[in-house]
């Protein structure tokens, strides 16, 4: 049984088969784990603390206090993990969606906003299940 979404498992498997010892140590430092980003929701004169759950890593994901929402927490795979896969971009099993410029925040927004058009291009051209981009449109319009 997979611990993470299928595309994350595919990226981990891809990297584990190709990284040397130094690369493996870097990957371990960015191990994916489920995280909760708390935020405050106000409605009808009430204020409640809620949480948004996402996959991130302790190294790159610096959660902000609850009053600042979760928008700036980096989702896994972070740019560092995506950069580990980049030297293997010529490999037939490499997925373009793993490129560092497609790194996202937990909110579903791209870290590099100019990549929004590229995301739509990938969604049209590839099967969303294999790219890992199938659920990013949920938060991209927030």
Proportion of strand residues: 15-25%
Distance, first to last CA? 32 Å
The number of helical segments is: 6
What sort of overall outline do the alpha carbons produce when their principal axes are compared?
elongated
| Helix content range | 25-40%
Biggest sheet details: 2 strands, antiparallel
Q: How would you describe the oligomerization state of the chains in this entry?
A: single chain
Taking pLDDT < 50 over at least 5 consecutive residues as the criterion, the unreliable ranges are 126-142
The count of strands amounts to: 2
What string gives the helices and strands in order? Answer: HHEEHHHH
Average pLDDT works out at: 75
Specify Rg, calculated over alpha carbons.
16 Å
Structural class: alpha+beta
- In spatial order, strands of the major sheet run 1-2
Total number of domains: 1
